[in-house]
Automatic annotation (TrEMBL):
Pfam families linked to this entry: Aminotran_3 (PF00202)
SUPFAM superfamilies: PLP-dependent transferases
Name the record gives this protein: Glutamate-1-semialdehyde 2,1-aminomutase
One function term, GO molecular function aspect: transaminase activity
Signal sequence coordinates: none
Protein family: Belongs to the class-III pyridoxal-phosphate-dependent aminotransferase family.
Lineage: Archaea, Methanobacteriati, Methanobacteriota, Stenosarchaea group, Halobacteria
Native organism: Halalkalicoccus jeotgali (strain DSM 18796 / CECT 7217 / JCM 14584 / KCTC 4019 / B3)
Record keywords, A-Z: Aminotransferase, Isomerase, Pyridoxal phosphate, Transferase
Length: 434
């Protein structure tokens, strides 16, 4: 069997894996030609054909220190040497990482580990519902919180479904969808009105910076209103910091914004690519999970607190706290945004470059500051795909989905910036002016 080309691997994948990749979003990479990866290092990805790309996808964001950061990988390997899984009682490593999260995040008084952001938001909502005794969840259009039925709603609704409750998947439980209320991001009044209208709100969940649609930045006062209104009604506010936590700040976006939620979901950059996630928050909320699995809130999982993920998290959080990683990737992000912005002007391209910190995204055919989901609906997908194609041909990898941001890691630097902007100059120069 020929495994030596990306094409042959993808062909085999299509026969045994739905869509030929583990997720539909991953399969979108094939829109620009089949690729199967076999190696990664620092800022670089390599395919089975030996083709190299600078990676701006970074697995949808977890890789914050660069692929294969030696200290993180060494910590994970050392843990495997000691023993892989115990699944009873606790370990010193669990305690150490939990203490670190408590030290870092303003909202964290207690911590439960799990393996994905989806699990973390699920747990957070269950804890909030148990506390309030209420069922309704408020979420915001354009925010993704994972694939479970409570939240995979109105993340990318088509224009005609904006303002409604739009399930993203077939097969979702109608009762779960009916118990979710969707509001526009940055609309403080809508939050106050929702609390006036519904007396059964059990949880409010929000990405403090919605990166699931590239980047929306919260208006001054929006998250503060969310905080005040939920506190007045004694309804837990959940920040989904799966992307923002540890990518934009070692102390979470909540620290940067000065808004402390009751519960926080963490994943992605927490482990620099290893599967580790957490729900953390106020002691009284979290303590509901301290029962014996027959009472209180059940939080469970064979692989929860897996030593390999936790070893990676311990080292990643240590590096993020001790080194100027966030400052440097944020400064570099600013230069990518400025550089792309300048190129858009130079080539007379209608569009804007959005982003925050180490995240950036060129958007074609739209101008102004996006405030809410509707503001990204009009972007020119074809042009973005043409841009992604030109960039891939020149050795820069990111997914050709215009709503999916590009990321930087600590392994990206001047050399990557220079080659990226030179390639972007050539590609943007080759697009027809609009
Ligand atoms: C903001 C946000 N929350 C939750 C999730 C779900 O995380 P996971 O894919 O680890 O389940 C994601 C994943 O992209 C995310 O971006």
């Amino acid at each position: 069997m020929d495994d030596t080309t990306s094409r042959s691997v993808v062909e085999r994948a299509r026969a045994v894996i739905p869509g030929g990749a583990q997720t539909g979003l991953r399969a979108q990479a094939y829109d620009l030609g089949e690729v199967a990866f076999s190696e990664s290092s620092g800022p670089t990805l390599e395919t089975v054909d030996g083709e190299e790309f600078t990676d701006y996808h970074l697995a949808f964001g977890p890789i914050v220190l660069g692929h294969g950061h030696p200290a993180v990988d060494d910590a994970a390997k050392a843990t495997i040497d000691d023993g892989v899984l115990y699944g009873a009682a606790t370990t010193a490593l669990e305690v150490e990482v939990a203490e670190r999260v408590v030290d870092l995040l303003p909202s964290a008084e207690m911590v439960n580990f799990c393996n994905s952001g989806t699990e973390a938001t699920y747990h957070a909502i269950r804890l909030a519902r148990a506390y309030t005794g209420n069922d309704r969840v408020l979420k915001f259009e354009g925010c993704y919180h994972g694939w479970h039925d409570y939240v995979d709603i109105s993340v990318y609704p088509p224009r005609e479904r904006v303002g409604e409750t739009h399930p993203e998947s077939d097969g979702m439980l109608p009762e779960a969808v009916d118990h979710t209320e969707v509001l526009p991001f940055n609309d403080a009044e809508a939050v106050v009105e929702a609390f006036a209208e519904f007396d059964d709100i059990g949880a409010v969940i929000c990405e403090p910076i919605p990166h699931s649609v590239d980047c929306l930045v919260p208006d001054e006062g929006f998250l503060e209103t969310l905080r005040e209104t939920t506190a007045e009604n004694d309804v837990p506010l959940i920040f989904d910091e799966v992307i923002t936590g540890f990518r934009h700040s070692a102390r979470g976006m909540q620290h940067e914004l000065g808004v402390t939620p009751d519960l926080t979901a963490l994943a992605k950059a927490m482990g620099n690519g290893y599967p580790v996630a957490a729900v953390c928050g106020r002691e009284d909320l979290m303590a509901q999970a301290g029962g014996d699995n027959t009472s209180g809130v059940v939080i469970s999982g064979t692989y929860s607190g897996h030593p390999v993920g936790l070893a990676a998290a311990s080292e990643t959080l240590r590096v993020l706290s001790a080194e100027p990683v966030i400052e440097e990737i944020t400064a570099l992000g600013e230069r990518y945004r400025e550089g792309l912005d300048g190129l858009f002007s130079e080539h007379g391209i209608e569009g804007r470059v959005v982003g925050y910190g180490s995240v950036f995204s060129p958007q074609f055919g739209v101008t102004g500051e996006p405030q809410r989901y509707e503001d990204v609906l009009g972007l020119d997908e074809e042009r973005f795909v043409a841009f992604a194609r030109g960039m891939r041909e020149r050795g820069h990898f990111f997914t050709p989905n215009p709503y999916k941001r590009q990321h930087l890691s600590w392994a990206h630097g001047e050399a990557e910036l220079e080659t990226y902007l030179a390639a972007a100059d050539a590609v943007l120069g080759s697009l027809p002016v609009n």
